[in-house]
Amino acid sequence: MINRVEKLSLLSEMISFAQTDDKIKSIEYKFLFSISKQLEIPKADFDYLFEHPVTYVHLKSHSERIVQFHRLVLLMNLDQAITNRELVKLHNFGLRMGLGHECINRVLYVMESFPNKIVPPDFLIDIFKVQYN
Predict the structure, then answer these.
(1) InterPro entries, per this entry (predicted)?
(2) pTM of the prediction?
(3) Which pLDDT value is given to residue 44?
(4) DSSP string spanning the chain?
């Protein structure tokens, strides 16, 4: 299980990603808030992160990094208007998390073939399993 500092770092990273287009849409805010509730982060702390981002903390668990990457993919696809800037930022987040370049590219490629560009978790996990075989 991840600790509070890691949880705040995850949320801060997601908020930063959502702010790529300079404005957070209502649907993005609701998604981020639902993640904060899952992580058991109080609303006041969640809202504080919008103005005061915390330093990135590298997750030790590979599975937690995959889950976080999946959250970022879902967040990116909420508004159905994906920009090249968002794709580059997502790719860089994945690399910073220590995920494989080829796996990240594969996820970004195959998401186009799924309804609403939402890659099912099992499919995403299978892509990243390849990195370790």
Answers:
(1) TerB-like
(2) 0.85
(3) 96
(4) ---HHHHHHHHHHHHHHHGGGSS--HHHHHHHHHHHHHTT--HHHHHHHHHSPPPP---S-HHHHHHHHHHHHHHHHTTS---HHHHHHHHHHHHHTT--HHHHHHHHHHGGGSGGG---HHHHHHHHHGGG-
Q: Which residues have C-beta within 8 Å of that of residue 105, sequence separation ≥ 6?
A: 91
* Closest-CA residue to 96 (of 130, 68, 128): 68
Count of residues in the chain: 133
Question: For residue 60, is it left (φ>0), alpha (ψ between -120 and 50) or beta?
Answer: alpha
For residue 132, pLDDT beyond 70: no
Q: How far apart are CA 25 and CA 61, in angstroms?
A: 30
Cβ–Cβ < 8 Å for 8, 45: yes
What tokens were used for 117? 């560009």
Phi and psi based region of residue 25 (left: phi greater than 0; alpha: psi -120 to 50; beta: remaining): beta
Map out the domains of the chain as residue ranges.
1-57, 60-132
